[in-house]
Fold each of these.
Amino acid sequence: MATNSDFNVPAQLVKELRERTGAGFSDCRNALVEAKGDVDRAIDVLRRKGQAAAQKKAQRDASEGLIGHYIHAGGKIGVIVEVNCESDFVARTEDFQRLCHDVAMHIAAIDPRYVRREEVTQEILDHEREIYKEQARATGKPEPVIEKIVNGKMEKFYEENCLYEQHFIKDESGHLTVGELINQMISKLGENISVRRFVRLKVGETTNAPSGTPGAAAMEPVS
């Protein structure tokens, strides 16, 4: 009886999966074996394993890292972002440095307001939910349907405004979020990795970030 381990993975498929995910050779090969050569399914396998690895390492202290930066549009938009890991060794790797650059570039392009959904204040959530309820009630739909509509719009709010929930700008498939990108790097480098804070500056734009959200004061000067 044939098993997954009997599946012969073509080198070209491994190469394609590595290019699309940035995962290591053995992880890509094992994912393709599990998915029986289906690249899209293999990507899902890598995501699940990345999330599992991230959950195991999430409680570990990550006090090292780098300040990533990105300047865009002829010097009109700039981002600095603090990305943490557990060791200076990992912080100096090419993979980690590329991650810092890519996250900064994503922030420059997409302009998130928060790092994670947990940072959104209850006041803002209540305000957004009330707006969505009013919009849904105007359609005349019953309350149970309205609640489902509002919950869906709240998820869309997180996706549009929270860095970890946003679809990573360099992922052409449109399925990989920034949070999943970070999880993949956790799995690859074996350390807890997280974005701590960021600030995005645009020439001529007044910074007026709500309390508790990233803004001009999000990265305090060090004395």
Amino acid sequence: MAATFMGIEWQQNWGDMVIWEEFYNKYAPRTLIELGTGRGGMAIFSAMQCASRGMHYHTFDNNAWFDMNGALSSLLNIKGSFHCVDIFSDEGINQVVGIINQAPRPIAMFFDNGDKPREWSIFAPKLASGDFCIVHDWGNEFTESDIGGVPVERILTVISDARGPSWKSMWFVRK
């Protein structure tokens, strides 16, 4: 059986919820941009966090994998926050960069759309000093060498490093 959040499938590790909570409490971003909505469980978790904290929320995927009109989705206006576009197309890049340029700062960008090194190389350089980069599947689909020349510093190291390697997220602040 697949893991779910509020009955909606998600592809995260439960330990990440604690780290996300610590991140929101300690760093207070004003906008979250999620690259890769997937089955929607993380979108529901993220939208709930953003709604309770007065944050702006945007999620991107080239497929609508879950019911945008379901009770939780409707309550949290996931349909209004969801951008159904290929983030690697010109249209998708323009949409993401447009939000980066207009969103209240600091921005937290969650890289989890399936090609994390490519996502990072396109969008991490567009973020400003003081914005945050969170990348899923650290050590599997994304490694230290994928950071390239983007000036970042690891944050939440103690809590992140305490977790095992599978499905691990890594947390950075742009310098």
Amino acid sequence: MTTTEYWDRTHLYEQVWQQPVSKLARTYGISDVALAKVCRRLKVPLPARGYWAKPLHRRPKRPPLQAMSAAPRLRRPTRAQSKTETLSPITEGVSESERAELAIVTRLESCRAETRGPEALEPDVLVTRTRRALSRGTTDGRKILRPRAGSTCLDVRVSKQTLDRALGVFDKLLATLRAEGFPVKVGGTGGQLTSVQILGQGIRIGLLENVRRIQLPNPSKPTDYFSSYYSRAAVRYEPTGDLYLQVWNSCRNVRKSWRDGKHQRLERVLHKVVAGMVRVAQAERREAEMMRRAAELYRIEEEFRQKRQAELVFLKGLIESEERRVRRLEEAAENWVRAKRIREYVIAFVRSKMVEGQQLVHGSALGKWAIWAMDQADRLDPLAASPPSVLDRKWELAGQYR
């Protein structure tokens, strides 16, 4: 529960000289920078740097609180805390499962380097199987052991001299993982096939050894252009004995490698390694959730796009159909006007011929022409029945009758 009040200069002055500002700021739920800014605005003097580190008898006297004529009224958030409220600002608003995961990470990371991990009386079955597979295998050009073909073992890529220590590290790591309830699975021969099930995610791990690349001097330098262009300098590889544990998952913004340091070996930080694997699992789960949401958003957008595309296709069909109707209407109106003009012309033409002395009788040339012309007007008129004409057989000239 959070309420809002106003800062009291006198009360704040007493508080900042009784405990450090960083500790006092946490009681108000704000940062020490924000609290120092409030003190500057209210002209409340603060202890100098290093004040609380000095003994009590050597601390300087606090300066008096100067009077302020018009002190600004600044809102102060206060958090009503009960005895049962023990949540820190980091864990507020976090679900129970995430809080339990955070507790696992905090507990593992808080283990001291001197704390030894759980050790079994006998080596793990996977460690024994890996030792047998690597001892019967071969070495590559980098002097790294390769397991025998067809064998199932842990992803260990070290030299023969470092094999015992590497298997000991993996044995302690397996014991720590199983003590936390994280099972280990081995898929087969090859790299990136050793996985740990953490928070429902498969975390692929491998133990490797650093190899130093040493370039050898070339006694005979080739003089030919092509041979010098394609020739490679002679090199050799020397394992350094430094181990590092690598997480092969592709998640980002999280640590995925732990190495031997100058003052601390990999065996002494296995708890932090397991804590890092938990963080990798959390990052993997977050990215999977983001990908699921992105896929769901893409599916919704694709459905909307397809629906919109279908609507546009349907709308295009309606528009084209309406345009065809409009064109037919315009053509019918034009043909009606043309038919009317033809009829008026035929009547005027017949009258002019009758004035000249020709008679409009059945069987005469003027009568035949008048009937033919009126038929052509009826063929154009959309409101009249179309009489037969030889033009109706024009289609016979195309195709096989041509």
Amino acid sequence: MVKPQTSSIIQSTPLVLDTEELPVIWVQEINLDRTQEFIKELIKLDSDPEVEAIFIYISSYGGDVFAILAMVEAMLNCNKPIHTVGLGLCASGGGILLAAAPGMRYITENSFMHIHHIQTGMNGDLPGIENDVVQTKKIEDKIFSIITKRANISVKELKARLVDNRREWQLSATQAKKFGFVDVIGMPNLKKTLVTEVEW
């Protein structure tokens, strides 16, 4: 089966897992290799008794759809509160990760969220391509159900929006909040109680 991607643009910069003092994970490029690092650091922070909450900062064009699903599952199965912060552009898989957080979802005032249909390149014989189409539709429905779970829009309405916008929907921070993909416009206030020394 062809592995679909949620974006045809993959950044060359690596996923950066950074902070010396704050329980923060920074997400740029999304692929299966980087996802392993993401999950590893998420588990480390989730198991640290001194960490009260985890913040995931996202500035990403997206990436591999199965990598994104793995990252979402890891977030949803953490014991600690998981909050996301959108900076600049949260496109495709970056937008999925932003909207899927079980905790608070932030986006800065001048940032954007971008949603589109799953993109894939299919080849092979006709039965194989037909099967890939069926499977890709199932994956897309799963993705859309994830990002609309806490939103003010249904999967059906989301698909209609994509049709109206020629399969691409770019939302401003205000629009992202209006439709319930995020909760707050602005940066989170990291209180001193959340600051802890994390060994990387």
